[in-house]
Amino acid sequence: MHAPLDRPLTPEQLGAAAGATVTETGIGVDGALRVWEDVLAPACLSVDHPRYLSFIPGAPSKAAAAFDMLVGASSVYGGSWLEGSGAVYAENQALRWISDLVGLPEGAGGVFVQGGTIGNLSALVAAREAARHQRQGRRPARSVLLSDETHSSVKHSLQVVMNAGIVTVPGDERGRLTGAGIRATLAELPEHEIDEIFAVVGTAGTTNAGVVDDLAGIAQVARERGWWFHVDGAYGGAGLAAPSVRHLFTGVEHADSFIVDPHKWLFAPYDCCALLYRDPVLARAAHTQKAGYLDPVNVEGEWNPSDFSVQLTRRARGLPFWFSLAVHGTAAYSNAVEQTLRVARAGRELIETAEHVRLLVEPDLSVLIFERIGWSDADYAVWSSRLMTAGFAFVTPTRHAGRVCTRFAIVNPETTVNDLAMILDSMK
Ligand SMILES: Cc1ncc(COP(=O)(O)O)c(C=O)c1O
Q1: Which protein residue has the closest C-alpha to ligand 1 atom 5?
Q2: What three-state secondary structure class fits 189?
Q3: Ligand 1 atom with least separation from CA of 207
Q4: Hey, is 7 helix, strand or coil?
Q5: What phi and psi values does residue 366 have, to the nearest 5 degrees?
Q6: What is the dihedral of CA 377, 366, 278, 332, to 10 degrees?
Q7: Helices (DSSP H) in 135-177: which residue ranges?
Q8: Could you tell me if 204 and 238 are in contact, meaning their C-beta atoms sit under 8 angstroms apart?
């Protein structure tokens, strides 16, 4: 049995049903729990419902979810070795597993941060700082090369937070950033603009279509140009654990930094992103905060997680993932990712053989993007809302090549081929 899908309510509906919950004298444990159980929780979608297939869902293992409660109830500070050495040791073992899957060297390491957004931002801040040191005397580098399909959070971080420039390279016919595409763009760019580039971002599993960029080709250009190579595997990085698709990631071993969100396809609860650096010394140079009161935590180069990202105080958010990995073993993780890939492949066949829908991008991983032949924007909106209101499925419209369509993002091992078939039938 899984939790019901549930659905959002309007502020007016919630106001009428829940009333004022924060009062001068308190409503007591029973009162607060009742309002949560009866009104508020049912107004939050269950992202781990097997037919929640929008955006990127989550599917925490029971072990990870249970341990999250323990972490929440323990007063563990995860920012420094001094205060949280046991927690940091365990987190680092989980990071080691990911680092080995990527193929990073022994000295690689990093930190669990809140999500892919903070992971990507922290990596690119480290990249810019490394470039600043390398380029002494030269004009500061300020741009990052990426593709149309690079996640919006990367573009947002560069433009809004880092005030950096963006060079966008058109993707190939499946939207992949390739070495050849980068070379073609560079051939058209004035030399001074090329000189401003300090990093390139490859995506290992684009969010909308789930395709993996040409990581080997990108790595080659990055090496030739002396750029930092960051790989955003927030969603798709979990595929590294699946032998059937591991070959798609060839080249990821050259990454200077890499992220994957265990809260997406690695069965951990929100919010959890693994951020790894090939050379953690470069990350420390960018992120270590200095203040008199912090001196006691930086004595002999201890592994302080806060040295590797833009945040200081941190919950030991890698622990639920670590606990589940320790309980079940890494083979169970490979099997679970392979299970979702099998369902995605069967879903692809259903779409290919049905007459009313058309696959839009050949999938690499577990995202299927497709259209309902003959439908308008309004048809998708009505259908999507009908499925959600019925508590049956959460499948939202998206856009591909300027057209409205829809997609299945499958990360839950409990999602079945029959679930996909029923949703496809509802589009007839
Ligand atoms: C490829 C990719 N990068 C980055 C992000 C942002 O991650 P988060 O939402 O965990 O901050 C996402 C989120 O879906 C993503 O799919």
Answers
A1: 116
A2: coil
A3: 16
A4: coil
A5: -120, 25
A6: 150
A7: 152-156
A8: no
- Per residue in 303-321, pLDDT (tens digit) is 999 999 999 999 999 999 9
CB-count exposure of residue 102 (10 Å: 0-12, 13-18, 19+): buried
What is the whole-number distance in angstroms between the Cα of residue 234 and the centre of ligand 1? Answer: 5
Q: Which helix (H) or strand (E) holds 67?
A: helix 62-73
Give pLDDT tens digits for 148-171. 999 999 999 999 999 999 999 999
H/E element holding 146? strand 143-147
Q: What is the pTM of this model?
A: 0.97
Distance 326 CA to ligand 1 centre (A): 25
Answer whether 115 contacts ligand 1 (Cβ < 6 A): yes
The answer to whether 121 and 273 have CB atoms below 8 angstroms apart is no
Q: Does the beta carbon of 198 lie inside 6 Å of ligand 1? A: no
Question: Is the shortest distance between the CB of 122 and ligand 1 below 6 Å?
Answer: no
DSSP string, 219-277: HHHHHHHT-EEEEE-TTGGGGGG-TTTGGGGTTGGG-SEEEE-HHHHSS--SS-EEEEE
Q: 179-188 and 215-225 are packed helices; what angle lies between their axes, rounded to 10 degrees?
A: 40
Verify whether ligand 1 is closer than 6 Å to residue 273 (CB atom): yes
Atom of ligand 1 nearest to the CA of 273: 10
